[in-house]
Amino acid sequence: MKKIFFAFFLSVFGFFYAQTSRDYAKQVISTLSSPELSGRGYVDGGMEKAAEEIVSQFEKIGVQKFNNAYFQTFTYPVNIIESSSLKINNKELRLGSDYLVGAGSPSLTANYDNLRIFKTSVIDSLFLSEENSYLDKEMNRIDGHVVVFPQADFPENLISDNSSAQQFYSAIPQMIADGSMKSSIPLIVELTSAKFIHTISPIQTQTVDLFVKNDAVSGKIQNIDVDIKSRFEPVFQAQNVVGFIKGQRSDSLIVLTAHYDHLGKISDVIFPGANDNASGIALILSLAKIYSKEKPKFDMVFIAFSGEEAGLKGSQYFVSQPLIDLKKIKFLINFDMVGTGEEGIQVVNGREFPKQFAKLETVNYNYQYVKEVKIRGAACNSDQCPFYEKGVPSFFVYTLGGSSAYHDINDTSESPSLYAFNKLTALFVKFINQL
């Protein structure tokens, strides 16, 4: 009887508490996507400030430390673009709206005229083989027109359809020595009408890559003036933020996760990352507030990951150096981009764990929390993946509908509608209580 009453109490309590969770979520998202946090990235201490803010919320809520610390520190390589300016035909272009800098680009300050145009098919020959995994991802997302502007006077056959990167780069020292090449770094400009999607690169490439909107350039390109300051950090230090709430039982764990890092800031242009993923942090904090009021059935672990945008670095590190016994995890739910919900939610790994998905779907059917609970199979597209690969039962949940802002300058605190946030909170309280 006591267990039944507790489950009923926590279920009802969770529902009514959820009515105020939207207001709290707005506050969290506004803070994490504010200019003071510089896009939670790699300049101005943005990521560190975000981690400190999450710790502050953990302390207020009553989420406890692991081993007397909230932080789990680790390192990974990243290319950091600190500033960028670009003029084409003497017109200053706006970063983020008129153009983007390829995330792996090195520093380059140069003025280009007497431009040389090459066919698209030569682009692959400019990339070293170890760069391909990153560059293919970045270049292939654009359906555009590729133009290459090396500031050099070299034979037409130096770069051909079947030439290699080694052939090109081996010729550079002599070209610099004889004065025919003023910069050792080729500049590649891609004119495109596609949506801009910024990324993070774990390497520094040997080319500067610029993506320019077609309508930002009038007529034939006559000259280019570029000034980019980048630095490669082989051991950038980041930290996961980890805490727990003691449950009635410690033989099993429920783990709730979300990443807090984003793309940061270049010059004075910020990529705020409100939906991606300040919204996910807002949701796990909202759930922590609920479970801090009354002990949950099982111990609850809350993890805010860093390094997700750089390739799931934080979650990969956690599973390699776990602070908990991974075999004790009864279920893990990762929340990433949960700030909308007009069209319901998508559940990655739903097909992999059909019993748990059926339970979630039943809860939603009974209470009509969200429009639809859609099912997907496995996908290594967020921080649930390293856990799933270790055999941990897990979902990755994101919302559907609403704003399309993603990895751009428009994902501001006004972007997430929080349309389904209250009901999403209530849905997962009920689901978790039934695990």
Structural class by SSE content: alpha/beta
CATH fold-level label of the largest domain = Aminopeptidase
Number of domains: 2
What gap, in angstroms, lies between the N and C termini? 18 Å
**Would you identify the regions where 5 or more consecutive residues have pLDDT less than 50?**
1-16, 119-146, 153-165
Number of helices: 9
Radius of gyration, in Å, reads 24 Å
Order of helices and strands: HHEEEEEHEHEEEEEEHEHEEHEHEH
Beta-strand portion reads 25-35%
Overview of the molecule:
It is a single chain. It is built from nine helices and 17 strands. By secondary structure, the protein is α/β, with parallel strands linked by helices. It folds into two domains: 2-76 and 236-433, Aminopeptidase; 91-222, no CATH class. The strands form three sheets. Strands 1, 2, 3, 5, 9, 10, 13, 14, 15, 16 and 17 form an eleven-stranded mixed sheet that branches. A four-stranded mixed sheet has the order 4-8-7-6, with no helix packed on it. Strand 15 (344-348), helix 7 and strand 16 (373-375) form a beta-alpha-beta unit. Helix 2 (46-61) packs parallel to helix 5, helix 5 (274-293) packs across helix 9 (421-433) and helix 7 (354-367) crosses helix 9. It starts with a helix and ends with a helix.
Walk me through the topology.
Blueprint: H1 2-32, H2 46-61, E1 64-65, E2 71-88, E3 91-92, E4 99-101, E5 108-112, H3 132-140, E6 145-149, H4 165-177, E7 187-192, E8 208-213, E9 224-245, E10 249-259, E11 264-266, E12 269-271, H5 274-293, E13 298-305, H6 313-320, E14 329-335, E15 344-348, H7 354-367, E16 373-375, H8 385-388, E17 394-400, H9 421-433
Helix pairs in contact: 1-5, 1-9, 2-5, 5-9, 7-9
